[in-house]
Amino acid sequence: MVSLDSPERNREFAKSIGANLTLLSDPDGKIAGAYGVLAPGGDHARRWSFYIDPSGVIRRIDRDVRPGSYGSDLLRTLDELGFGKESQ
Q1: Can you state the percent helix, strand and coil of the chain, rounding each to 5?
Q2: Are 46 and 62 in contact (CB under 8 A)?
Q3: Residue pLDDT, tens place only, 42-66
Q4: Does the structure show a pLDDT above 70 at 86?
Q5: pLDDT in the model for residue 84
Q6: Which run of H or of E encompasses 73?
Q7: From its phi and psi, is residue 7 left (phi > 0), alpha (psi between -120 and 50) or beta?
Q8: Considering only CA atoms, which of 64, 59, 58, 56 is closest in space to residue 80?
Q9: Are strands 58-62 and 2-3 parallel, antiparallel or unpaired?
Q10: How many Å apart are CA 84 and CA 72, to the nearest integer?
Q11: Angle at the Cα of 53 (from 48 to 56), degrees rounded to 5?
């Protein structure tokens, strides 16, 4: 996920939803612009989530993020994509 928030605020958000993941902090909006999520006016990023695998491949983009169910949606998507699962 790309957020214009500070690393501290992103850490608090991840903790609040019980997720152990890294959120990209982009206070100047350069990365958000490169990913096409910088909203008009440049004061915030659209609520899209990019699921990027360890090889750097974008496996899915969620353009319909719903704040009320985001934690469970996030965990379900991570499970569907096999993130965090050990190879058998």
Answers
A1: 35, 15, 50
A2: no
A3: 888 888 888 999 899 999 999 999 9
A4: no
A5: 74
A6: helix 70-81
A7: alpha
A8: 59
A9: unpaired
A10: 16
A11: 90
DSSP state of 68: G
E strand or H helix at 25, and its extent? strand 24-25
Q: If DSSP codes are grouped into helix, strand and coil, which group holds residue 67?
A: helix
Work out the number of other CB atoms within 10 angstroms of the CB of residue 29.
17
> What is the amino acid identity at position 10?
N
DSSP 3-state assignment of 72? helix
Q: Is residue 71 exposed (0-12), middle (13-18) or buried (19+ Cβ within 10 Å)?
A: middle
DSSP state of 87: P
Cα–Cα distance measured from residue 73 to residue 19, given in angstroms and rounded to the nearest whole number:
11
In degrees and rounded to multiples of 5, residue 31 shows phi and psi of -70, -40
Q: Are 45 and 65 in contact (CB under 8 A)?
A: no
